Amino acid sequence: MMEENNNKKTQQESEVSKEDLERLELLHRTHEKKGKQLTIDGESGSLREIDELRGLIGNQLDNPEEKYEIYYGGIRKLLMDHLPKGKDYKQMRDIIYDEKNIFLNIGKRKSDGGGVRGSDGRMAFQPVMKDILDVVIMWVGGSQNPFDLYRDLYLLNEKHGYPHEQYDDSTRGMANAMLKLAEDDEITE
């Protein structure tokens, strides 16, 4: 009798109910690859695997080497080579860099986080980096007046609805003067 009970118990433990199998099947399916599916090629009638995600993303995948070249070999190098150097121009350069970084960081300002932006322009999306690079290249090929570059970056942020950095009174005065001088230069040209 006791041996019979043990056999029943062992048999029950080894049997898996239909509901348990369904649950296990569902759990197994949750770990299957997503984003790929089979499709039938209309012309040949053969089955093909389609990577839907890659198709959706297309060419928007970032290339780290290209990003590095755009940022360091393009944007940063051109700005360092063509913006005025020295302590006397530091505040002006910082204001220009702030506008550039707001755009690269999709509207994030340092002033929103108590001096910490919480993102890094070097990791911006490549199309965003290319937009800034285009502005800088146009500026280098054009006037090379830092006020014009500030205006162009300011307007680029305006176009995308991004805010501008909030400054103390003296820095805000400098930023406003740069914008005004760039507008005045544009009117006289």
Description:
Residues 1-22 are annotated as: Disordered. By secondary structure, the protein is mainly alpha-helical. 61% of the residues lie in helices and 5% in strands. It has eight helices and two strands. The protein has helices spanning 2-14, 18-30, 52-57, 64-82, 90-104, 126-141, 146-159, 169-188; strands at 36-40, 47-51. Strands 1-2 form a two-stranded antiparallel sheet. A hairpin with a 6-residue loop joins strand 1 and strand 2. Helix 5 packs parallel to helix 7 and helix 7 (146-159) packs across helix 8. The longest helix has 20 residues, at 169-188. The relative contact order is 0.09.
Task: Name its key features.
mainly alpha, two-stranded antiparallel sheet, 189 residues, elongated, 2 strands, 8 helices
